[in-house]
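Chain A, query sequence.
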Amino acid sequence: MIKNQWYVVLSSNEVKKGQLVGVTRLSKKLVFFRDEAGEVHCIEDKCCHRGASLSHGKLLANGHVMCPFHGFEYDHTGRVKAIPANGRNTPVPANFKVKSFKTAEVADFIWIWYGDDDPKDSPSYFDDIDDSMSYAQFKEVWNVHYSRAIENQLDPIHLPFVHYNTIGRGNRTVVDGPIVQWKNDTMFYFYVFNRVDDGTPAKKPEQLDLNHKSQVYLEFKFPNIWENHIMDKMRVTAAFVPIDEENTMIYLRYYVGFSRLKLLNKMIASLGNIFNKIVLHQDRDVVLTQIPKKSELKMGENLITADAPILEYRKKREALKSSE
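Chain A, predicted structure.
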């Protein structure tokens, strides 16, 4: 995993007040909970005493997480505030603590800061999605490293083959470009120019004019969120959430803003997500066969020009990992 990054890890509706939610994210056992003000907190899901799972305990009225084994109480910073066996008023040694993670809640997602340094800013979602748009969401687990799941959405070559009867209709097998544009150090757009083979070779990116691009283009923001700009009031987004080195939770959202009535937009998004799920499962059936499950910058693959978005992703991911 890339350190010193804000990762989407959960959907906001998965952590409700009064509940402890234990999940594995970034290969770590974590427990999430909300305080009385509704703010989300995250600490390691392992009691520092005898290793019991804190998420199997209780969230007390004072906001503490109580271990189910011996009643140790943890605050949101991960420090033990009470050891019942020693007496509640007995001071607790400083070494009785677990790791805590800084959290944020943006765009109905829960994010955690994964790194040693404090974050310099808050996480940001996609700038072109606002409150005028409503979304429907579904989630599912893929048995692959999150890098493989991400790269599938950066791949313009697979459309006429994997999605031959859905979004890849038209037999546009030749890929001119694509053009990759970095907007900042951790976010890029890429523009796809797929066409039917007329006997002419695929054009290089420098031979293309962005004025002739389709209204459909794609965006990726490190470390794990992606957006498909379909039209002005329609988007598909995905968060590729690392569970561990071999499993990824995918949160797919379909945003629409055709109507001023949010409920109607929500209904349209829900119906549209039926189709999006079919498309995603076409991807899944192929991606799960890839070897190895995790991608790297150098891994014995023979990439071609049309793989430019994947290569850009790999190079930047390698650079961010190297800078840790």
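The chain has a mean pLDDT of 96. The first helix runs from residue 146 to 152.
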